[in-house]
Amino acid sequence: MGLPGRLTNASLFLLLGLAFATGWLAFELSGQSAKAVLWLHAAAGVAIVLLVPWKSLVARRGLRRKRSLRWASVVLAAGIAVSIAFGFVHSAGHPNVGYLTAMDFHVGAAVCVIPFLVWHVIARPLRLRSTDLGRRNFLKGGLVAASAGLAVALLPSARRAPTGSFEAAYPVATQWMFDGVPQLDARSWRLAAAGKTWAYDDLAGFSDRVSAVIDCTGGWYSEQVWEGVMLERLLPADARSHSSVNVISHTGYSRRFAIDDAGRLLLATRMAGAALDAGHGYPLRLVVPGARGFNWVKWVIAITIDDQPSWWQPPFPLQ
Questions:
Q1: Could you tell me how far CA 120 lies from the centroid of its own chain?
Q2: Which of 6-20, 89-103, 296-310 has the highest mean pLDDT?
Q3: Cis omega (within 30 of 0) on the bond before 289?
Q4: Do residues 130 and 35 share a domain?
Q5: Which helix (H) or strand (E) holds 139?
Q6: Taking every pair of C-alpha atoms in the chain, what is the biggest distance, in angstroms?
Q7: How high is the pLDDT of residue 1?
Q8: Which of 213, 223, 289, 303 would disulfide-bridge 193, Cβ 3.0–4.6 Å?
């Protein structure tokens, strides 16, 4: 016998919240710090799948009642199913699905169902009883959790980074979400950096090098040797009297960093010994060792310094 309907619904709500929170937190993390968070994320997804048989019984009873807006519940279920399915597709070693990646579908479906999940919680409020938290149900919940943990341990991971990304030849990818790829002319392009203007030929004369891994939230990573100029070289002598540096793209995209990090940030004009192309950020892109790909601003046209704290920006870009 399964869990009571009320407890099944409550468990699913908590697991969905855990999956969503850990998934977005993992986007902000890199290296080994992401591993434990992703383990929880994957375990929550597996546990949701294990609860499907019990939830299906609850859903059948609800559909017989012919409540209004039943279609919203169907959309919610379908969106969660799509998100979880593509999460497993990615974990199984198939990161690319046509033009998009499995991670694009996984995250996109999860974001789309948020309004439907909020509606469902408001329209179908949880009403747990003290008897729902008895010893027998606690043991059943423990069995589900243990089964989810075992399943995650068996998922393929040898070729993946701690963030869950697969190693790949560095593809041409846009910066974040819906940015297009601008075609910029190096002859007319200029970089405005803290009160001084630089031409492309000026920056191409620098040969600072950094070997760094770009780990994209699309589900892939690639290690490359980048060449250009350390950002700190372009800042005025009194730069450290300010709090942060803001790197701005031709598209309007920007990311802010602590001024103390300027010494490890590279403005790249070349990758793997060759000049950047448009898809990789030509004529100038930012390289941020140890940070996820959305921090690596492409098509840089301006650098400003000010006294805003480095965290004064959304944790994930909204544009």
A1: 26
A2: 296-310
A3: no
A4: yes
A5: helix 135-154
A6: 74
A7: 47
A8: 303
Over residues 94-117, the pLDDT tens digits come to 777 877 788 889 999 999 999 999
220 and 123 in a common domain: no
Task: Tell me if 150 is assigned to some domain.
Answer: yes
Count CB-CB contacts under 10 A for residue 68: 7
> Of how many residues is the chain composed?
319
Question: Same domain, yes or no, for 111 and 217?
Answer: no
Q: What is the rounded distance in angstroms from the CA atom of residue 83 to the CA atom of residue 48? A: 12
Give the Cα separation of 168 and 30 in Å (integer): 17
The total domain count for the chain is 2
CB 228 within 8 A of CB 208: yes
Whether residues 37 and 131 share a domain: the answer is: yes
Q: Read off the tokens for 69.
A: 């807006």
Domain boundary among 121, 136, 167: 167
Residues 214-246 as b/e (b if ≥16 CB within 10 A, e otherwise) read bbbbbbbbbebebbbbbbbebbeeeeeebbbbb
CA atoms within 13 A on the CB side of 237: 0
**Helix (H/G/I), strand (E/B), else coil: 146:** helix
Domain that holds residue 149: 5-167
Domain assignment present for 176: no
Mark whether 74 and 218 lie in a shared domain: no
Together in a domain, 149 and 202: no
Per-residue model confidence as pLDDT tens digits over 58-100: 778 766 776 667 888 889 999 999 999 999 888 887 777 877 7
